[in-house]
Amino acid sequence: GKENVDSRHNRGRGGETTRFHTVNVAQPVRFSIKCPTGWHHYEGTASCYRVYLNGENYWDAVQTCQRVNGSLATFTADQELRFILAQEWDLEEKTFVRKDQRRFWVGYQYVITNRNHSLEGHWEVAYKGSSEVFLPPDPIFGSAMSEKENVLCAQLQCFHFPTLRHHGLHSWYAENCYEKSSFLCKRSQTCVDIKDNIVDEGYYFTPKGNDPCLSCTCHNGEPEMCVAALCERPQGCQQYRKDPKECCKFTCLDP
């Protein structure tokens, strides 16, 4: 309902005063918040992405992503990769060797099949998932490679400068998996409630937005079957403020 309820006085039969309270008519709502705070949403894959700055080796990075119900990122199409490259990730420059370049672990591994005259091998998806995942082109081999390792791990290198970033310039590195690096996690979009908690499939919740009196069901990362409560204005209070996160909770501003 409206914060300031309009009261209109009309004369009914017999001279009685009839009060009409105007309320807002319910409107369809489109929710844009489908990722927890700190994650970037991409509609094309219905996924959320986050760069973790704490330098970890490849195997520790895998576990960190799994703890947030995700995995090291793989890509299904050029558009998804371009979305990643175009993001401003709010990163500290000290986590990178060069200020103009940034490297992240991603979910591919390079399997070496021949070390005779030159390194030969092929890319694989580190953790089997969608068959639609594309594989990177031939890599640049990292400086910390070991002659004993037959499996190297993928780093995606992008550039800090906005012009280079928006042109999609990038490189793929095959690096020693025990080197420490920032990494990129990917997870499915999710339901996020008004207090930034992640909501499981099938549960009721209040979506992030401007209406704390909305209750929806989480289905495939989307709020569905939403119902709203209308709040009565606080009695004996002319000026008041609604709590933005609690339904039907008001603060009276009268002297």
Description:
The two termini are 24 Å apart. The protein folds into two domains: 40-91 and 98-188, Mannose-Binding Protein A, subunit A (Mannose-Binding Protein A, Chain A, Roll); 191-252, no CATH class. The longest helix is centred in the first third of the chain and has 10 residues, at 58-67. The protein has 255 residues and is mainly beta. The strands form five sheets. Strands 3, 4, 5, 6, 7, 8, 9, 10 and 11 form a nine-stranded mixed β-sheet that branches. Strands 14-15-16 form a three-stranded antiparallel β-sheet, with no helix packed on it. The chain has a two-stranded antiparallel sheet with strand order 1-2. The protein contains three helices and 18 strands. Mean pLDDT is 77; it is low at 1-12 and 92-100.
What's the count of strands?
Answer: 18
CATH class identity of the largest domain = Alpha Beta
Q: Calculate Rg over CA atoms.
A: 26 Å
What is the global morphology? elongated
Query: Kindly, what is the distance between the CA atoms of the first and last residues, rounded to a whole number of angstroms?
Result: 24 Å
CATH topology of the largest domain, anyone?
Mannose-Binding Protein A, Chain A
Specify the CATH architecture of the largest domain.
Answer: Roll
Q: What order do the helices and strands follow?
A: EEEEHEHEEEEHEEEEEEEEE
What average pLDDT do the residues reach? Answer: 77
Structural class by SSE content: mainly beta
Report the uncertain regions.
1-12, 92-100
Beta strand %: 35-45%
CATH superfamily of the largest domain: Mannose-Binding Protein A, subunit A
Number of helices: 3
Portion in helices: under 10%
Number of structurally distinct domains: 2
Protein name: IDD protein
Organism: Lanius ludovicianus
Domain C-type lectin: 44-186
GO cellular component, one term: membrane
